[in-house]
Write a structure and sequence with these properties.
It contains five helices and four strands, in the order H-E-H-E-H-E-E-H-H. It is an alpha+beta fold. The chain has a four-stranded mixed β-sheet, sandwiched between helices. Strand 3 and strand 4 form a beta hairpin. Helix 1 packs across helix 3 and helix 2 runs parallel beside helix 4.
Length: 110
């Protein structure tokens, strides 16, 4: 993977408070894990951006090296790697994801 891809990924992560690297788009997720990640973020009511890794092979490979995480989707909050859909689900069920979003000022306390 090129340094350009790493730089581009870093730039996208830095530019968005909540960012989901996924397969497909929020309206048309291309895998069950991406679909679950979108459902969790939508349920939280948080504004987020997404990157469809199927549209860009450099990003698809690069994001795995960038985060040192082997699977997609990947969630970033305020530049910090949170995890994939399993971690998102565990955090969501434990109330930790909601707390994180509130602490970062991304959703109002419910």
């Amino acid at each position: 993977m090129t340094d350009t891809a790493q730089a581009r990924i870093a730039e996208i992560v830095k530019a968005n408070d909540v960012l989901l690297f996924m397969k497909g788009t929020p309206l048309f997720p291309q895998c069950g894990f991406s679909s679950r990640a979108v459902a969790i973020l939508d349920h939280l009511g948080v504004d987020y951006e997404s990157v469809d890794v199927l549209q860009d092979m450099e990003v698809r490979q690069g994001i795995k090296e960038f985060s040192d995480w082997p699977t997609i989707p990947q969630l970033y909050v305020k530049g910090e790697f949170i995890g994939g859909s399993d971690i998102m689900m565990e955090m969501f069920e434990a109330g930790e994801l909601q707390t994180l979003m509130q602490e970062k000022g991304l959703v109002s306390a419910g």
